[in-house]
Amino acid sequence: MTNVFVIGLGLIGGSFAxxxxxxxxxxxxxxxxxxxxxxxxxxxxxxxxxxxxPKDLEKADTVIVAVPVSTSMKLLPGILDVVRDDTxxxxxxxxxxxxxxxxxxxxxxxxxxxxxxxAGTEFSGPSAALKGLYKNKVNIICEVEKTAFKLxxxxxxxFTDIGMRIRYxxxxxxxxxxxxxxHLSHISSFMLGKTVIEKEKNERDIFDMAGSGFESTVRLxxxxxxxxxxxxxxxxxxxxxxxxxxxxxxxxxxxxxQKGDFNAIYNEMENTNRIKEILKGMNVTAS
Amino acid sequence: MTNVFVIGLGLIGGSFAxxxxxxxxxxxxxxxxxxxxxxxxxxxxxxxxxxxxPKDLEKADTVIVAVPVSTSMKLLPGILDVVRDDTxxxxxxxxxxxxxxxxxxxxxxxxxxxxxxxAGTEFSGPSAALKGLYKNKVNIICEVEKTAFKLxxxxxxxFTDIGMRIRYxxxxxxxxxxxxxxHLSHISSFMLGKTVIEKEKNERDIFDMAGSGFESTVRLxxxxxxxxxxxxxxxxxxxxxxxxxxxxxxxxxxxxxQKGDFNAIYNEMENTNRIKEILKGMNVTAS
Lengths: 287, 287
Known about the structure:
Oligomer: homodimer
Number of strands of chain A: 8
Largest sheet of chain A: 8 strands, mixed
Order of helices and strands of chain A: EHEHEEHEHEEHEHHHHHHH
CATH topology of the largest domain in chain A: Rossmann fold
Radius of gyration of chain A: 21 Å
Number of domains of chain A: 2
């Protein structure tokens, strides 16, 4: 019997629990969550087999840390302190530099693997967990060489068994790229939602005139602030850079409109249309 | 036998053709398109029964003008010139003020209805036409009182028969509101696509790290420049206003990040989370 501990029973942790239970028979999934209600809900939904406490972590073969990135940074050293030598601990956070730093000199650094599964939805909490969420999704692993070889093997087998594709990257590159393809999208969506809500005091107008295009661009504005504020904080420099470039592009678009240069606007859009080909390529990844 | 003429066999016109053919038996659908290839494709796909020429419009009982808004403005007076007194002509454009102006003094103004079906996808051309696209979607009608009562009745029956819900609005309000819930979304998406493409010269990185969140926010950047450049031109003042507010909100978010005020950032996101409730309300509309 393998004991898997999931710390944080939200969308990401809960979905790992579901997938692990569906591909392995001989596994017991323990849940740890400071939110007692979430923990009970996770048990009721069958995400976990048993509730557990941090002191039970010595029983763990695998530990999944699926809490906001700021909490991960606080918890990880203590988790590594108590786990056994043959236990592998991995996190799933959307930023990787600071998390790698905080464990860099830990005596059990080799028990840790830094991971970022590119999967999720705008929903959160145990009820948002989805079976099969990780199928065909990319999992970005940072500093793989710092994890003990046997534990690498074990955890990469787990990722592969639930259908993930593995990519290796250094933490700084990860954080720089992910600012563009994920963090910026969330800000653009939140600010779009804000702009429309502020203007349209009469919500009936939004309700009736908005179509699927608006719904799609504003979808990420449903995301959890508890998860996202720490991500923006940890990836501050990169995110500010992407925001500056995004704002400059919007500004330039606005100036073209003010000048009435709609040929240039046509060209801007046509050049950006090649996102079609890029998105076609990533269809395997996206849900 | 009723003769319906569809001018412009793209996503919107083609989908009207499909829905009309599926709800009415006694109807012949004629297609007009300056793009000979699109016209043939529309025939092959069964969107239309026959190819037609502008001179055939005198046979029309109903005319659907589904071309870019700039083209609609050019074509509409000439279309009204040739149709019969009992023919109804409607457009489907995403801007309504200028189109209403251009026909305001036409002797056949009462044969025209200004409509904006809130439906569509990011795809274009005859092959993008979808049966059932309009089911449960809102159709915004402007200046309904300027259309002959019998023709209102006829065309509103058509909209209702294919499953649409009708809302009435004056053209200026339409253009102001739609700038927020549709036009701005398209710009935010195009500029997001542009920002990421510019930065990520190595497309493999986008390909592998982008998830469904990015795909969702950038989806509208696949849209047709031929359709959208004229919309931005016709709704210039409103769109510039929304862009200024959007840029100001992004700027403020960036400044909060620079100051390191992540509590304020948390609050910004939490306040905007109520988009959840708004989107829940509009689920009927969105595809």
